[in-house]
Amino acid sequence: MKKFNTQHWFLPLLLICVLIVAGCGSNTTSAETQTQDNLSADPTVPPSSPTLTQPMANSPQLNGKATVVMTVNGSPITIEIDGTNAPITAGNFVDLVNKGVYDGLAFHRVVRDPQPFVVQGGDPQSKDPKFPSARLGTGGFIDPATSKERMIPLEIKPKGAEQPIYSKTLESARIKAAPVLSHTRGAVAMARSQFPDSASSQFYFALADLAFLDGSYAVFGYVTDGMDVVDQIKQGDRIESAKVTQGLENLKN
């Protein structure tokens, strides 16, 4: 998943420690242990806290919904992006798609054993086929306007709330309500490090219902067609193209 670095590319709080760290003794179930490595890409990189400056003012926002069609292995994956319930997270993704950032990027982490978990990609470093595969999962989108990595706040809207909660997991915010956008099979969400406001460009598809990630990672859309294509993605497969086919007018920069 992402890196154990100052970045964000670790998806779920507990990614199967048996897959990443040998001898990670635990009494938790396989589903629970799947959050333990945060979907981070490189556990050898020491973490440091990133600084997020005025995330609301500087982040693109999606006011409404949009449709993105991503082509992998010659087949389309249709994703409905929900800017109604996750405007900043959705706006960031749609903006990056519209900029062509995802075209040619590889899926650097695919976890299906011991049970279906996630397919993760979106590291801009993966566009270079010579970039060391062991280091993938440590990169994010460098905004050419600032020459800095664009990071967005953790954004989760609890059921019954008028606005999302920012920069906190629902647990740390002491909110017991479930999120509006949950980790059901086909959910699309942002990968990040242990720091809430560290998501950038890396995202993941949920290969199964992953309720234990709800409230900790920001879901921003769902696969509406082509989940069979997602199920066939292998590590190293590339996004041939990603296009906004509907709703681009809802993107506000």
UniProtKB/TrEMBL annotation:
Residues 30-41, 50-61 have a biased composition (Polar residues). Residues 77-235 form the PPIase cyclophilin-type domain. It comes from the Bacteria. Residues 30-61, 117-139 are annotated as: Disordered. Residues 1-31 form the signal peptide. One of its GO terms (molecular function) is peptidyl-prolyl cis-trans isomerase activity. The keyword 4Fe-4S does not apply. Its EC number is 5.2.1.8. InterPro entries: Cyclophilin-like_dom_sf (IPR029000), Cyclophilin-type_PPIase_dom (IPR002130), E_coli_cyclophilin_A-like (IPR044665). It holds the Pfam family Pro_isomerase. Keywords: Isomerase, Rotamase, Signal. It catalyses: [protein]-peptidylproline (omega=180) = [protein]-peptidylproline (omega=0). PANTHER family: PEPTIDYL-PROLYL CIS-TRANS ISOMERASE CYP38, CHLOROPLASTIC. Belongs to the cyclophilin-type PPIase family. PPIases accelerate the folding of proteins. It catalyzes the cis-trans isomerization of proline imidic peptide bonds in oligopeptides. This is Peptidyl-prolyl cis-trans isomerase.
